[in-house]
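Hello,

Following up on my earlier ticket. Below are the two sequence lines again, exactly as submitted.
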Amino acid sequence: MRIAIDTGGTFTDCVYLRGNRLQILKVPSTAGDPGRAVLEAIAQIAPDGHAEIRHGTTVGTNTLLERTGARVAFVTTEGFEDSIAIGRQNRPKLYDLFFTKESPLAPDDLRFGVAERTACDGTALQQVHPHELARLKAAVQAAAPEAIAVSLLFSFANQESERAVSAVMREIGVPVSVSHEILPEFREYERGSTVLINGYLAPKMQSYLGQLDGALRANGSRLHVMQSSGGIASATDAAREPVRTILSGPAGGVVGAIAIARQAGYQNIITFDMGGTSTDVALVNTETGPRTTTELHILGMPVAVPTLNIHTVGAGGGSLARFDHGGALSVGPQSAGADPGPICYGRGEQPTVTDANLLLGRLDPNSFLGGALKLDPERVKERFDQTKGCLASVQEFASGILRVANSHMESALRRISLEQGYDPRDFVLVSFGGAGPLHACDLARALHIPKVLVPNFPGALSAYGILVSDFVRDYSRTVMLQPEGAALHEHFRALEEVGRRDMQKEGLQGAAVRSLDLRYGGQGYELNLDWSADFVNRFHQLHERRYGYSDPNRTVQVVNARVRMIAITEKPVAQREDIRPGDGKQALLAGGIYDRARLHAGDRFAGPAVIAEYSATSFLPPDAEACMDEWGNLVIEVAA
Amino acid sequence: MTDPIELAVFKNVFHSIAEEMGAALRRTAFSPNIKERRDYSSAIFDREGNVVAMGDDMPVHLGSMPMSVRAALDKLTFEPGDLAILNDPYAGGTHLPDITLAMPVFVEDHPIAAFYVANRAHHADVGGTYPGSMGLCTEIWQEGVRIPPLKLVGKGVLNRALLEFLLNNVRTPREREGDLTAQIGACRIGAQRVLEIAGKYGMPRVMANVEAMLDHSEALVRAELGRLPYGEFTADDYLDSDGINDEPVLIRVTLKPEPASRRLIVDFTGSAKQVAGSLNAVAAITYSALFYVLRCLLPEEAAPTAGLMRPVEIVLPEASIVNAKPPAAVAGGNVETSQRIVDVLLRAFSQMIPARIPAASSGSMSNLTIGGTDPRTGEQYAYYETIAGGSGGRPVGDGVPGVHTHMTNSLNTPVEALEYAYPLRVRRYAYRKDSGGAGLHRGGDGLIREVELLAPARVTILSERRRFAPYGLQGGSEGATGRNTSIENGAAHELPGKCNIQAPKGAVIRIETPGGGGWGGQTTNSDRLPHYPNAT
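Thanks for your patience. The regenerated structure is below:
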């Protein structure tokens, strides 16, 4: 039996296959000890053990966001001990005389230099002397770190020094993260930051996943973990390289959306995952699969391992609305969070997006979370009336809040579509997360996206994605080559050989997918595209599409070679329901709200309408038409 | 009455267009200066040249960009498909390396442009006496090629003759061509987006909201000015020297708030005459510095539009260090004098609102330019970098170490990118311990950067605060002054704050940048421990 378990802020969502049927279970999350909820859920689903468990975890993300990771030492080339703290020497806010910078994960007394130097072409200018290694070991040991991260200058061009240093560091007996093993790519700050974050997370993740894995192995189960790249890894690999799990849950959502859309026959989708504090969006071709980026930042710190190209904005159901001193309405990025929560939950005082939705009748006060939480519309009206400023009515205030929140999300959607050279009219908006389906139709209209798809169980799509994800391992190296010549193939072959060996260790048969990071010689950013014989031509085309021009006379430079090893996971056979034309009237509840669970394939009805289900609510505006398809998806034609 | 919802939506829309223009430029540019250091900015202007939205880029560009658009508007008659180029500090520019492109946006068939989009990027070389065009000149003609407002693109057709003429006058033509192409591409993207907005909402609605955005900024700044006390508040500070004569250069400002009418007069009378060296600031720069300071006093949501300056009157003495006239050299006015103008303004404001003003930050961009022939390729190169210092201690906590402050926010060039691109090797990049001024809240430490030349090269340093230290406030101590050193064959020689030298292969140039001033009287002398900014 295969079980996917995604830890969320409020619920731990489980999706699994019993026989041929997809089942869902939600158990309350156990914040201090997330593994408890995971084990409880497994005990309910598979009391006899022998299950393949796949886990979307927030332990890595939360450890980083809450700054509760290890006392980690950072070792780099002498003279550059501070460069990881200096970062790019810019400030996060331009016009704030009181700006602050996130303090470095490795403070002053935990940053160490080693006398050595490699040149950009890999020449060893200064090799590490054995005395220097002994000195370094003693100094690091004396600082008593709980983890160590090693990233020397140009280690990707010549691994010798870094090998020698990391061998000595490993004698200390704490987890050691090494840059040429995790990310053999150029740009020392981005690489160093990634390796340092890995070290910072390693002890906690090793203990969390180790305990969970131990408990599961005892009854014959195995643990796997969802990575930010959209692929599954073994618990051992994830514990060694936890920096690859930072977007574990959101990646599951994107993979789930792809699987659902592909099944329903849609090739081009934009995923729209709106939660309580933030919204994640991604643009995907479901045939070729999701693209990854290496430019993720968390708390201003770069994370340069491949991550699904997900763009996040600080607007969600809990985003707070207020008027600024100049009289403009602003919404977010501050959020009411779970405590105090929106006004309608009973304790919040400041208007939120969720309150605005309730006030405008887009949320059913009685069926929220299956009726487990009764919402208080009177309280919302009262508070809105006190805070509506110069606006004429609470309705105007509420619809204003939605418009401003939507404008933030619209910018995010534009950024991943129009700004990358894609026309939203060619896409379907796949909407999920607790709040996504409430806003999806308005956003689709604003961007001329013709169709919105709300999958079944939109609140558990991440877990579904994790269930159907393939096993993935990513390999890369900086090569700095001209496109011609045999050297590139040698690099690919070497990466693939390591990849195949690693996959075999896991008992998997993997296929290799090659890709390249390319730029015009002299540019500072690369475009990633799959390898093919005519990749140079395709690069010119992609550059033209993305940036409006290309220059076939300029030389093209291959910066990084990448290999992704993929072992396909057997996908569950979807349940299909025959289309029977209907009007959905059988699903109408008191108050004119549709109960999603009682809609049949083929039911079709027009907006305005509200469709409620356990974990989410969909809003169908006037002139939009919804139809249940044969796979249980709600497909909405929004009409511009 | 302004509609607060429309206003919020339009603020977001225009800001994201400016940001998109910047992202496109950064990703397609060729010089490390633009792509890695992000020394560029983007903005959108209304039909009169009022700035409506800016990207979160370089403050020194932002306040001065409107002058570029204004100069182009005065000089040229725009038609659809045109695009103007300029860099002349005496006709809308700031200093020659900053090349500005401005493009009109025509909506429907209206013969007058409804908007302008513009971007400005610092080019690593624009010719002149010294590689990198940031040397110690005494006349503008020595500083590089001077471009008045001209059409680089006319009715959609690139003016090849003009481009070739420009490229013929710079040391790194291929890189310049790539960067200019990237700037053109970014302008076109911006223009396209503005047209989409006009199409989506209709011009009457767009224009009404543009006016509302300007009014919104004005309302915010007036609210602030209304809270200032009556009086005259004068502050002084000095530039070390102009690099030619070893004399301090005075900058003086008097702030005269008029709280009842919610206005402010900013008078620079008493500042020094323009100088022989290149530290002269043209009026656009002084205007930028003031714009920046005012914006900093406003809440986060204030959009930096032209409305901010409506209630402000600025008095600039003619042919002075803050309002230079031709043929004064100006390369350093943009990068160094601009910082000192901010220091003086903040010092004057600290007399009125002491709890809201930090001590002086490093006050210099510590500009390092290295140029010569790359032995690996035989081609000319020009490397330019600004090196951050410490930020001043604040009423709420310590200053931040090693960070760009006030008029710049450029990034460093990654060591591994730099060594691929140039015949240079970075030897050290570190905090300069104990360079921040003591106080209740310490100033942030400066930085040390050491660069080794792998081939003989021409080195230009343009730095400040090597003599007059960043001031402390409310009893805090000064930050440490900066120091420049050349190390050849193991022997270290101190270099002046501003110099051009020919250095041999193997020489190491060491730049130590100033720390920030301290804020508040010191409680003990013993707490000179590693420190990080307190969370606010």
